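Re: beginner question about structure tokens

> Can someone show what the tokenized structure looks like for a real chain? I only ever see the sequence side.

Sure, here's an example I had lying around. Input first:
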Amino acid sequence: MRIFLIGLILILSWNISFQQTSFKKKTVFQGFWWDYKNNNYTDGWTNYLVDLAPRLKAMGFDAIWIPPTIKNQNFGEKGVGYAPYDHYDLGDKFQKSDAKTRLGTKDELLRMIAVMHANGIEVIQDIVPNHIIGAGSDTGQGGQDPAAPTAPCTDKWKNFRYSCWETPALTQDSASYLAKKGRWPKNHQNFHPILGCNNCNLCDPNLNPICWQGFGPDIAYDDCAFGLSSNAIYNPNQATYSPYRNGGFGTNNGYMRKHLREWMIWYKKQTGFNGIRIDAVKHFQNEVSRDFLWNLQNLAGWATASDTMLAVGEWVGGKTELDNWTLAVEERSGTFDFGLRAFDGAGGLYSMIMGNGAFNLSTLPGAQQNRRFINVSGTRIHRTVPFVNNHDTYRPIVNTQGNITGWNTGQELSPHVDPREPRLASAYAVMHAMDGNPQSFFEDVFNVANTSQRFSHIPSNISQLPQHTDLANIIKLHGALTFKAGDYKVPSSQASFWNVVTSSTNNQDIIVIERSQNAIICATDNWATDQDCWIDTDFAIGTVLKDYSGGISTTTTVLGPQPGGSANRVNVKCRAVGYPSFTYSTSYSDHGVHYHGYAVWAPVGRQNEVDNYSRGPITTTQEWEMEDDLGDSHCESLVQGGRLPANSCSYRIVGKIFSKSGSSVNYDFIEDALETGVDNCLEFYYLTGEKLHCQCGTGTFSGSFTNDSTGWIIAKIRHNPGDGCDQTLICGGASDCTGMPSQKANVKLTYQAPATVNSLNYPATLPEMPSFWTGAGGDDDFTNLLNWEQCNKPDLINGKNVIFVNENAFGLNNGSSWADAFTSLEQALHSASFCENIDEIWVAKGTYLTNTNNDRTKYFTIPPGLKVYGGFPETGNPGWNDRNIALHETIMSADIGTQTDNTDNTYHVVYHPASTDTSRLDGFSIRYGHANGISTNQDKAGGIFNEGKIIIANCKITSCYASNGPSAILNKGSQAYLQLENVDIENNVSGISESIKNENNAVLKIDETVNVKP
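And the corresponding structure tokens:
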């Protein structure tokens, strides 16, 4: 895709002014170390970050950099993110032996992003476009393609197939793996080397960094990098493969490049992240980065990020290399400023910290990369990312408690800086004062180095997770005093600079940076001598400045120009690194003061801004694409995703959000362009099963509702058979979606999460989740786990599949438990008639009507082979032994109309159709049937009309009427077999003076316990 260059004004020195009207910068917290983990949040790092978020907000962070969140290869424990396997698995598919990633589930990932937004913190997502790894099933089956080229430094493990809704990983054999249809399959031609295309050297990162296979199969973004697997079963033509129906590939639009771009847009819409960190940009073509950056910033629909999006590429090298890459991607991204940091350990911030006070601070401005920001339409957008440490420069060796015992220097891309170094704070002050988006490393800010609690602390507990007070102060001042709102100037590098301490212009021990008319930052590496100097300033004459670090207690006032000068003058000071007694400590303890080697001068009167500084909340928007090549139907996955099925009212689970009490949830149901005008429903439920909101509509529709309780909300969709928001019954009930198409849909949700959450109190699943019938198994089998949300089928009761009925139940009312019992016996029987493998219905004490539609021809119809038991208590969770028919009378009533007028009652109370399967009706009082009709059999059997095989036991049939037949029971037909046990038949009226009658060769058995009275 062609990307047009925006005209940019770039800073090429450190004293150029630009009349900006606004600015875009971030203070970035790296939210992980290399082998991040915490035993309180096993495989749940996103939950750890949720609990840490309020502390990050209090420190003043604008953004958090999170590790890659897609499913990784499993190395015995889950990968940290840089061994990616399936781009479309965010912790929702059952692959690599689990659904979770090291960060948790997809639900938990989306919650973490929303909670960060609620704290005003943007999320910077780490991505790894260079390589993938882990071909093959969980046991490696199917991963090798024998036709893959044989070459040094690579192998044949290049068949990548993925689980999805249509093809879950039900087995781990080769055939199952190679038949998977998950989105973006990859073959050996998608990786270096490619015979006849790019047969390059994979062994030397310096000779050919783009082809170097240092981490796993190295992705080839060349136009010619496509082809078929020699042994895969699912093997789509890569020249035409297009999940988004936007055609095949072409020039500058190769298979991997095109699908990387499409994945990036899907990823941003699905998660709602705000920016990206791009791993190993040296190792794939610059135009690939430029391509997906342009698309994210311009063609991502509602998720389009614009030029202000923070993007940073990891290129390890000097300033010229960094500038060249930044220019190559049309300055749509910055880089980590390894030049300022000194990637080789010579000069820069590294030498300032490690130089024992001998470093020349005046060289720091010249160490920065030149391409640090862009100016677009009056807005200065900071691109570069200055830093001291990150997970690639900081690789400690730790013991079982997590305490540092040494260093893996061979794994470090650049030498580490120990957080105990006393000049760390002054270096942080410098990098926050300079242009860019300063990045703070987790272990610089928080001490996990020697607390013996690296793996066991609670992040919200400040005593368990101490923080570096100097650094926290600098970070907060950077935001509260809006450093970046002022132009960047270095008065200590100007000829007018005067060093009071040395009575000279010497500037080796001090650097002074002014963010024009906003703040003056002074820093030193001198251990024992406080610094004192005069500088030119843009602050107005008479402005009184104070040191907000707290190190200098006196104020200073801006004076007019010195003789012969034109700029205003001011005297600024900063404390020495060792003031007052900063002893180099091996304990990693925080020294509790805010001025080790730096000062921050700004106008008096801004202390309240500093004390109360925080960013406002950000609304979260996330969009789910419901398609069969996404998600997963495996019972050990989240069982989310999949398109709406044809000719079915089955639910599909969209996903979960975590919403703040009292906040609004806005939603869009977006129909697919190929299946338009279909009537569908979008429903929202709490984890407990309580329905929160529902809307049905034709085509694309939108709406909103207010959430009245903080917690998880589940979104579900289904076709609408015409019953609107009435819940589809177990096994579909009478819902008829015949003719409904197989339909892709998107669901977009905009909501506000709470800022403070104890994630351990809000798990994404409950210990006992309600059983919700989805019908996703594609049949009416009660025992098919896939027909139940998250495969949570109701437990067997006495070895039986049971539906429950209680007229006072308040749960899901789908019959799956006493708490979620049907309130209508009519609905329970109706659902059971559609179900396979339902054994029994248990009914609690109460009065149940044959129907509520005033339909005299609609009776309690007992499905063949079903056993229906009454006499259970109406409270609690009763078992079989709690049943007491006399104490808990259960009434089946035909009195559907006016209670004083039996002539509008149904003709029968119970009907049992012809069948050879034996049914049972046990423990009921059967009342008020009024058979006074004129059609066949409507003038007979006000109580029970039987045409099949049934046992009626422990029942009482009373107050029934028939005008021209037996009042209580008609047993009719060649398949009719009726056995009565302990049945009382009394107070019934018949026009022919009969209570029970057999017709047409029916069989009737009555034992001595049956009592028949007029």
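Each token stands for a local structural state, so reading them left to right follows the chain. DSSP finds 14 helices and 50 strands in the chain.
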